[in-house]
Design goal:
The protein is mostly helical. It has two helices and no strands.
Length: about 90
């Protein structure tokens, strides 16, 4: 009969960290999808509103797209930073 070489505490910690990471991934995915949906709604409003006199539509649409990308990325970045700090304890 083989004995387990890894202490139970390390295995338990690894499982706990995996569960936390999975929960954070689900949470970040939901927040990211919400940010993308909100951004696409804003983009649709910009496109259907037509051009305002004196505005550069490409610039405002570009800014909206950058905002969508930033909003979609932020939940993952903040949770990854937290998980990295947690793993380094």
């Amino acid at each position: 009969m083989e004995t387990n070489n890894l202490p139970q505490g390390r295995i338990r910690r690894a499982v706990d960290e995996l569960i936390i990471a999975e929960m954070f991934l689900v949470q970040a995915t939901i927040e990211s999808a919400t940010a993308i949906g909100d951004g696409l709604s804003a983009l649709g409003r910009q496109i259907t509103a037509g051009e305002d006199a004196g505005s550069a539509p490409a610039d405002s649409i570009g800014a909206t797209l950058r905002g969508i990308a930033d909003g979609a990325l932020e939940p993952y970045a903040s949770r990854f930073s937290y998980l990295r700090d947690l793993a380094n304890r």
